[in-house]
Amino acid sequence: MSAGTQGRHRRNRKKILLAVALPTAVAAGAVTSLVSIGSASASGAVPKPDHVVVVMMENHAYKQIIGSKDAPYLNSLANGGAVLKASYGITHPSQPNYFAVFSGSTQGITDDGCYNVSSISAPNLASELTGAGKTWGSYNESLPNEGSTTCKSGKYAQKHNPWFAFKNVPTNTGHTFAQFPSDFSKLPTVSFVTPNLCSDMHDCNVATGDGWIKSNLGAYAAWAKTHNSLLVITYDEDDKHSGNQIPTVLYGQPVKAGSAPTTKYNHYDMLRTLEDLAGTGKHAGKAANATDITGVWN
């Protein structure tokens, strides 16, 4: 074979190798890009709102609120935001559900007794927020004064405020509802609002509770819609006749209006979602194995 012929053969072999290698390299790059996109999507499963306000109402089943003529404001929030069609409490009675959504565990509590500060040291939403450099606060209607650990006072009941049972949550983060700021930009990263026994529908009717939310949190809801913030309204438990299915409504700028996922969620899923919305980097108790709420975000 002549030198010229050998040269042509070498050049042809190079062309063949390049033709094979180039698509393989492109494909590998495409796979790498897809993996990167998937990872970004997974890490961004929930948005990062500036403020989240959670309201816990009392003892009503999904069908008693959603679609009820006695709850026009709550239903307007559901229609303009999201409603979870399969949201569930953990147990009965009331108090263990509050501990579940705050700390990922009922903490062995099975009653509505009074548990004063320093009795529990388990990780919880407030301690995680603080550890991550975020802020936390609760706003409790009819609480006698900021930081009060009283068990009961008029229509106030400590059984609906689990934060007062944890020694790793400063009592001065337990505010009266009168301290809820009118400048909503001054709200903590995450805060809980606890209406009193009448306003939360425990002792009073649905219309009373619906009106309370509109009067006291309607301005925040409207503000949240344009300020990357979120309002969550949920219930501790149902009326004990509906399999513990409860209403849960989300409203604000990060929420896709009209969304109504049918995925089953409970208080542990809610806690995990709140942790991830705030970027705590941790999950307390059973929230570690729970699922973020999805299908509701823009």
Overview of this structure, please?
The chain is α/β, with parallel strands linked by helices and 298 residues long. The protein has two domains: 44 residues; 239 residues, Alkaline Phosphatase, subunit A. It contains seven helices and twelve strands. A seven-stranded mixed β-sheet has the order 2-11-9-1-8-4-7. A three-stranded mixed β-sheet has the order 10-3-12. Helix 3 packs parallel to helix 6 and helix 4 packs parallel to helix 7.
Helix content: 25-40%
Mean model confidence by pLDDT = 89
Strand order of the largest sheet: 2-11-9-1-8-4-7
CATH architecture label of the largest domain: 3-Layer(aba) Sandwich
- As for the number of domains, it is 2
**Which regions are unreliable across 5 or more consecutive residues at pLDDT < 50?**
2-43
Summarize the topology:
Layout: H1 3-43, E1 51-57, H2 62-65, H3 72-80, E2 82-83, E3 87-88, H4 95-103, H5 125-131, E4 136-140, E5 152-153, E6 156-157, E7 174-176, E8 190-194, H6 206-224, E9 229-235, E10 245-246, E11 249-252, E12 265-266, H7 267-278
Parallel strand pairs: 1-8, 1-9, 3-12, 4-7, 4-8
Antiparallel strand pairs: 2-11, 3-10, 5-6, 9-11
Helix pairs in contact: 3-6, 4-7
